[in-house]
Amino acid sequence: MTLIFQLCLTSSFAIRAFAVLAGGIVLALCWVFLRSTSSPLAAFPGPDPQDWIFGNLLEVFESEHGAPHERWAEKYGHVFVYQCLFGEKRLSTIDAKALNHILLEKAELYPRTPSDLRELDHSLGHGIASAQGEPHRRQKKMLLPFFSPTQLKEASPMFEEKSQQLCSILRQMLEDNDSSSKNDKNMIVDMYAWFNRVTLDIIGQAGFGHSFNSLLGEDHVTRALNRLFCSGAFQYTGITFLIRTAVREFTFLQKFIRTQRTKAMKEALRILTEQGWKIYEARHSEVTSGLEKDKKDLITLLIRENSKTTSGDKLREDEIMSQISTFIAAGSETTATSLSWATWLMTRYPEVQVKLRNELLNALEKCPTGSLEPEMIYSLPYLDAFCREVLRFIPPATSMLRQAISSDQIPLSTPVTLRNGDIVNSIPIQKGQTILIPISAYNRSKSVFGPTADQFDPERWMSKNSEREGDSGVSISGQAVGLWAGLLSFGTGPKSCIGYKFSVMEMKVILAHLLLEFKFEERDPGGGPLIERRANSVVRPRIAGKKNGAEMPLRISFWKQ
C-alpha cells in the first residue's frame, strides 16, 4: 500500500512538473511569436528566420563576416530587417539619410548597446572607445591635438624606422632560408603576425614613448592581444553562441561560467593592464620631474596637458591609463589587419602590385637622397588609391551596432516598399531597438560606389568623370556619409575613429618599404589556401576550415632576381 501511495505521489509530481514545463514552453513560444510579429519593423523587407530561437544569427556568424548583410542589402535594398535571438527584430540600413541621422544628427540618441559598452569597458578600461556623452567629449578634446598635422608629421620617422626594421628581418629570413634555391629565394611567411608586431612597436613608440620590441621577439603583449581578441573568435555553434550572449548580457554569470576563452581573456587583460600602468607611471614620473621636455608621444602630451587643466575637462588617472590599452588594441590590431588584407589583395591582383612598385620606383628616381621620404610616399596617387580601395573592399570592422534610447522616426533618402506593398519615407523606432549598420555592405553598395562596387579596383579612385567626386575622384552617387573618402571604414560622427589619419599614413609607409624589396604571391602555386574574413571586433584573416587562429600565409621573395 505504501509503495502504491509513493508511486501515485511520484506520478502526480511528475505530471505536474511536466505540465509546468510544457506550459512554460508554450508561453515562451507564444512570447517569441508575438515579439516577432508585433514589432513595427516586421513589415519591412528582409530574410525569413531560419528558426524561432536563433532567427538569422547562425547564418550571420557561420558565414564569412559581413557576407550575409552584403547579400541582404543587394536583395532587399537599403533597409532590411532580420531576426535575432527569440524573435528580436534587428534593423539594418545603408540609406545615406538614415545613417546621417543615426551617426551624426541624432548620435546621442543612438549610443552603442549596453552589452558592447560593458565588454569594451571590461577589455579596454574607461578610454575613448567605451566612453559616452560628457566623458567621451572630454577625452576626445584632450586627445585631438595629438592627431594634428604637426604631431602626425612627428610620427613619420617612427613609421620609416620600424618599416625598415621589418624589411631587414624579412630580408635576413630569406637569406637564411635553405629550402629554396640560391637563385630563387622564397619562403612562406605569416604576414599577419609580422604586421601585428610592427604596428605594436610603432604605437608603442609614437603613442607611449615605450619600446615593446615586438619585432625582436619580445611579443608577450602581442600574444595577450591575440588571446583577448582571437580566442574562440572563430568557433560558433548554437550552444556556444547562447552561452556567449548570456554572459555578455548578464555579466554576473562570468563568476559561474569559466571557459577556456574566459580564462585566456582574463590573463590577457591582466597583462595589458599591468603593462598600461607601467607605461603610465613611467611617463607621469617624467612629466612631474621635468624630464619629458623633448618627448612628444601621446601619453606624455596627454599627462602634460592634463596637469595644466583646472576646468571640468580634466581627466582622471584611470581615464588616461585606459587610453594606453585602447590605442594598443585600436592602434595596432586594426592597421595590422588592413595591411594583411592589402598584401593578400596584391597576390590576387599581381598587376596592381606591379603598378604600385613602378610608381614607387619612379618616385625614387626623382628623389635626390636616394630614399623615399614619408612625405613623398603620402602623396603618391596610386598608392593612395590602393589604400582607399583596400579599406573600402575589406574594412577593419564590418558593422556597427547602435541602440535607441528613445522612440524616434528615422528619415530615408529613398522610400521603402513594405511587405504589404505600402511605401514609407521613414522608419518607426521604439526605445531599445537595436540597429546594425553593415559597413561592408555600405562600402560595396552599387548605389553609392557604382556598378563595379563588388569588385576590387583601385582605378576607381583615379577617375575624374564621376557624377559626384570623392576626395580622390571616386564616383559617389547621391549622399556619402563616411568620415574618410566617403567610406564607413572609420565610421563617422562623434564616435568615428580619432586616429584614422595616423593609421593610413602608417599603412602607406610600411607598404612602400615592403614593395621596394619584396614580391608577394599566394602561398601555393595556382592559388590557395582559401582565406576568409572572420571577426571578433576586427576582421581578421583565417584559413578556411581552420577552427581557430588568425593568419595570412603568403609566399615572399626578393622582387629583384
Automatic annotation (TrEMBL):
This is Cytochrome P450 monooxygenase. Heme binds at C497. PROSITE patterns: CYTOCHROME_P450. The keyword Heme applies. The lineage of its organism: Eukaryota, Fungi, Dikarya, Basidiomycota, Pucciniomycotina. Belongs to the cytochrome P450 family. Gene3D superfamilies: Cytochrome P450. Its cofactor is heme. The keyword Heme applies. One of its GO terms (molecular function) is iron ion binding. It comes from Melampsora larici-populina (strain 98AG31 / pathotype 3-4-7) (Poplar leaf rust fungus). Keywords: Heme, Iron, Metal-binding, Monooxygenase, Oxidoreductase.
